[in-house]
Fold this protein.
Amino acid sequence: MKPTNSPKTYRVKSFGCQMNVYDGERMAEMLGERGIVPAPEGEDADLVVLNTCHIREKAAEKVYSDIGRLTKGKTQDKAPMIAVAGCVAQAEGEEIMARAPAVSMVVGPQAYHRLPEMLDKAVQGERATDTDMPAIAKFAALPERKRTNPASFLTVQEGCDKFCTYCVVPYTRGAEISRPYGDLVTEARKLVDAGAKEITLLGQNVSAWSGEDDKGQAVGLAGLIRDLAKVDGLARIRYTTSHPADMDDDLIAAHGEIDKLMPFLHLPVQAGSDRVLRAMNRSHTAESYLRLLERFRAARPDLALSGDFIVGFPGETDAEFEETLKLVDAVGYAQAFSFKYSPRPGTPAASMEGQVAKDVMDDRLQRLQAALNRDQWAFNRATEGRTCEVLVERKGKHPGQWLGKTPWLQSAWFEGDVGIGDLVQVELVEAGPNSLAGRLRERVAA
């Protein structure tokens, strides 16, 4: 199934983390620079980019399922050109090319800036693979940001040096590297010029970002946030994902000192058992994690907390899982993500003894999610009656209805005469488990 014509339409399907969303947006921008436009809703695209994530269980098999759906029943002249990008491409690029003849391009997350030249080869019938990992070279090759969403992403750091025993990121994204300060300030300003009111700073370990400011002084993430807060037109700043080992005093203080830094912190813990944390190669204990959260809450009392959890890590006992539930009770998360452990090929945990039975993991995950859902709903109920600023991000399901995010990253819906990108004052009147109903009060002055 080798295409003979240049594609006129595309669709980028991104899986997994927010960094993949950012990468997907940048790939779409590059395709747009070539005159290729998004395929209309409900219509087949000439080019489909599967921007993959390797974190979830059976991630590679899901890629092949998607490839099969895209090509099933299609003749040679109707089948789309397919590119596989992201972390599965990085980890299993050669196998994908061997196993899936319908795939024209395989490109890793550090090489997707070469997608246009790979496309040129693919149009001529030459299949191309690029899984090189150059140090942030891709960012200089990406097109200028011309339009964006009111809530936009900005990748500031990539890779991870922590080598948690369950994680493939050091192998698929490489070592920790920080983008230069000046490049980030420039891109942030362009995002604001293109319509962004809120920017979320992204990194596999975003709190490890470091650089030199325009005066040549060394700064960390807090210093970058302080300077981005000076950008006219930028109303909100967030960041994710962090590691407890890299949360310094300046970053904690920033939460109490910078109004534009939203009162929300996503800080993965993964487990509540110290023995399990050691086996995961996490550098914190349950106690040190809780004390760190106390310091953040002291700096910003209305801070909403989010986290990540893995249940059924090899060797985890019933008693050790109960320690995770105790930690959840102690924190009271506003949001959280939780998953069953799944062995990733090449990681140390995949060959550890004591792999936990699937039915045991299923039961633990249900119990954990019940506790997390309980606390999320409790947090939402605690905000009933508050009037807060909401950034309007999209239309709701019904005419005149709008959806946006509160400072605590809650979804809120309301009715009124507003538009996408507006900052409005909304009274939160009724909490649900996943969102809140609001009543429009007034617009926020620009």
Summary: The longest strand covers residues 387-395. The radius of gyration is 22 Å. Residues 9 and 39 are 5 Å apart (CA to CA).
